[in-house]
Amino acid sequence: MSIRFHSASGRYRNRYLLMRHGHSQANARRLIISTSARGLADFGLSEQGEAQLEALLAEWHWPVPTRILHSDFLRTTETAQRVATHFGLELQPEPRLRERDFGDFEGLADSHYENVWAHDARDPEHREYGVESVASVAARMQGVIASLEQALRDETVLLVSHGDPLQIMLTALESRLLTEHRGREALLPASITVLD
């Protein structure tokens, strides 16, 4: 799946491909895995996720990346590794691309996302249930782009991250209210969004 995204702030010095990790074991078990204690070493790609990446790479029609940065969670690392191997690239772990921390809901059923998103729609600064605020996620995710824009020029950078952080970042880059991040079309596993 591919989505094109146009920046509200104008042109970038680099081209960015935003990729959500492939279907994971956490997705398969319908669990929230959002902390480094669980996410770094466990809950990698599922068989479905492996198949998604195989199909994606066989039919790649996006610009070829020149650099790959990824969340250091296992599911994003495995996703990035498959792409890096395909294109002969090095990986660069980037902790700012990690999953949003869902606090008290860590390890619980993913139906609890709705509780958090209901609060998000009212207040992007909230930390109910011990979650990382939308504003904090937006700041760290946009910080990755800002750092790359200062350091690089004319590169095609693949950023491999997670659904909620990517949707929050896209909402921020579009200069929309952060409370509206769940109003965006959901980013599916192994989908790529191109920033123009």
Automatic annotation (TrEMBL):
Q: Which Pfam families match?
A: His_Phos_1 (PF00300)
Q: Which InterPro entries match?
A: His_Pase_superF_clade-1, His_PPase_superfam
Q: Which domain of life is it from?
A: Bacteria
Q: What PANTHER family is this protein classified in?
A: PHOSPHOGLYCERATE MUTASE FAMILY PROTEIN (PTHR47821:SF2)
Protein name as annotated? Histidine phosphatase family protein
* Organism in which the protein naturally occurs: Billgrantia bachuensis
